[in-house]
Amino acid sequence: MTRVVLSTRAHADLTAIGRFIAEDYPPRAATFVAELQQAAAGLADMPNAFPLVPRYERDGIRRRSWKGYGILYSALPDRIFVHRILGPGQDHDRALRLR
């Protein structure tokens, strides 16, 4: 089974998302973050099922959308590496800092 590894920045993204949701509806914050984590973990079963991010094809970065959020990841030979988890409207270039 391929393992899914979240970057430090992806963990920070989850924390920020949880805090943002908790401002309006605290009971939903933890469950929403858990659902995002499950969506990321599910990448192990279908690592190449989601499209490459335009302009990041050569870097092999893919994007899985889930309830308006984007999970940016790379399918590596030994693992799935989640770079970032972005909210609606967040800029890929700024988040990835590759360009």
Q: Your description of this structure?
A:
The chain starts with a strand and ends with a helix. It has a four-stranded mixed sheet with strand order 1-4-3-2. It contains three helices and four strands; from the N terminus they run E-H-H-E-E-E-H. It is of the alpha+beta class. The longest helix is centred in the first third of the chain and has 17 residues, at 8-24. The chain has helices at 8-24, 26-41, 92-96; strands at 3-6, 61-66, 69-75, 79-86. The model has no long low-confidence stretch (mean pLDDT 91).
Low-confidence parts, pLDDT < 50 over ≥5 residues?
Answer: none
- Separation of termini? 32 Å
* Helix/strand class: alpha+beta
Give a quick account of the main beta sheet: strands, pairing sense, barrel closure: 4 strands, mixed
Query: Which descriptor suits the 3D outline?
Result: globular
Strand order of the largest sheet: 1-4-3-2
Please count the beta strands (DSSP E, at least 2 residues each): 4
Radius of gyration: 13 Å
Considering DSSP H and I runs of 4 or more, what fraction of the residues is helical? Answer: 25-40%
Q: How many DSSP helices?
A: 3
Order of helices and strands: EHHEEEH
Mean pLDDT: 91
Q: What percent strand?
A: 25-35%
